[in-house]
Amino acid sequence: MQILDGKKIASEVKEEVKREVERLGEGARPCLTLVQVGDDPASTVYVRSKVKMSDYCGIESRHLHLPENIAEEKLLGTLRELGEDPGVHGILLQLPVPAHIDQDRALLTINPEKDVDGFHPVSMGLLAAGKPRFVPCTPLGIRELLLRHDVEISGKHVVVVGRSIVVGKPLALLMMLKGEGANATVTVCHSRTPDIPALTRSADIVVTAMGRPKFLTADMVSEGSVIVDVGINRVEDKTAKKGYRLVGDVDFDAVAEKAAFITPVPGGVGPMTVAMLMANTLKAYSLQVVASNAAR
Asked: How many Å apart are CA 60 and CA 226, to the nearest integer?
């Protein structure tokens, strides 16, 4: 069994982005604006980590922290202004947003040319059409993690457990593309799938994104399979300093006995998500600069 080390690969991606930003030269710097609405503790932690990595990579980061009770139209107006600002190359709306905000409407308002999170319908449509521009960061990170560990994807049966717009759906589309890191046969399972264990046992690669602690057990996987755990769940642990510990959707110790490759939680997929956000931001900058130069 080999660990799919997300920390190591994320560090490699981060260093690559940093070098590319340095090559842009003086005065040429990508800018990522992070829009946070309210004071959700988890969102604050995530935004802080994104700002920290942006700064390390040489990407300018702007944290726009808006009040919890902001009117929806005010938020949409802010997103439109950012979309029109030539000094902003990437826009990320930190999710979740407060209940009074229509999340779909907010995401639709983001300029698709600056949609570094990859959730805009235009981004999803391009991915579905086989012409991806910005792929959601977690699926993109999963593919990168597999590729850099020399895990063969082409011709393999990939079973994705979970159908969210954040992971399940875009990952399925990404794995079905033609080309490197794709050409897989993909099955997507969800809460209404009648016999998930039968499907996961038939898989060469299983990706779990259900948000259910230790959902995937050893009897649900085949010998030599590749297991990617996207889940991050808090479970009570009175022996831990914080009173809880983090576990994934996979019963790690038991499944690791059968797996050829497996991601740990934490330290697997999580670091890759932020690293690929940096790569997407650099890509957005490059595309906008090329377009701007072509228009002159």
From this structure: 37
Q: Which CATH number fits domain 26-111: 3.10.20.310, 3.30.499.10, 3.20.20.150, 3.40.50.10860?
A: 3.40.50.10860
pLDDT in tens, 117-154: 999 999 999 999 999 999 999 999 999 999 999 999 99
Distance CA 264, CA 252 (A): 7
| Residue pair 154/147 in contact by the 8 Å Cβ criterion | no
Q: Can 50 be counted among the known catalytic residues?
A: yes
Q: Is the CATH code 3.40.50.720 the one for domain 137-270?
A: yes
Environment class of residue 55 by beta-carbon count within 10 Å: exposed (0-12), middle (13-18) or buried (19+)?
exposed
Concerning whether 94 is annotated as a catalytic residue, the answer is yes
pLDDT tens by residue, 204-254: 999 999 989 999 999 999 999 999 999 987 777 767 777 777 888 999 999
Q: Choosing from 14, 36, 94, 249, which is the catalytic residue?
A: 94
The reply to whether 137-270 shares the fold of 26-111 is yes
Q: Active-site residue 229, yes or no?
A: no
For position 29, what pLDDT does the model report? 92
The catalytic residue among 14, 114, 115, 117 is 117
At 294, is the pLDDT very low, low, confident or very high (cuts 50, 70, 90)? low
Query: Which residue in the list 50, 156, 214, 283 is annotated as catalytic?
Result: 50
Domain residue spans in the chain?
26-111, 137-270
